[in-house]
Amino acid sequence: MSGAICKQLQRGRMLQFMGPRVLWAWFKSTVAGHLPGRIKGDPLQLPGAFLLHHGQVIKGHTYRDASDRPDYVRLATPLQAV
Q1: How far apart are CA 23 and CA 66, in angstroms?
Q2: CA-CA distance, 12 to 47, in Å (whole number)?
Q3: pLDDT digits (tens, 9 = 90+) for 2-23
Q4: Which of 41, 53, 63, 76 meets the CB 3.0–4.6 Å disulfide criterion with 68?
Q5: What DSSP state is assigned to residue 41?
Q6: CA 67 to CA 22: how far, in whole Å?
Q7: b vs e for 24-47, b when ≥16 Cβ sit within 10 Å of the residue's Cβ?
Q8: Is 20 helix (H, G, I), strand (E, B) or coil?
């Protein structure tokens, strides 16, 4: 992962992994049959989604908590050329 992207991501706090929104999302996914796999990497690292152009971050979304989901279509829409 590029250094610029890593600087934008943060390590989560307990509420960001075990808060009500996260537990509700976990419950719904478990009921739907999606079970967690083995933990790999840093389990406290919050995810992010980024749009890159020539190796540069032009848009990004850093997650508020583990259940957050960005608007992927809006994120993938390129910025207007200036």
Answers
A1: 9
A2: 9
A3: 555 556 677 777 777 778 888 8
A4: 63
A5: S
A6: 5
A7: ebbeeeeeeeeeeeeeeeeeeebe
A8: helix
Helices of type H across 1-82? 3-8, 14-18, 20-31, 72-76
8 A C-beta contact, residue 76 and residue 58? no
Tell me the per-residue pLDDT of 20-66, one tens digit each, with 9 for 90 and over: 888 898 899 999 999 888 888 888 888 888 888 888 888 888 888 88
What is the pTM assigned to this prediction? 0.57
What tokens appear for 52 in the block? 């890159």
CB atoms within 10 A of CB 12: 21
User: What does DSSP assign to residue 65?
Assistant: S
**What is the C-alpha to C-alpha distance for residues 12 and 43, in angstroms, rounded to an integer?**
9
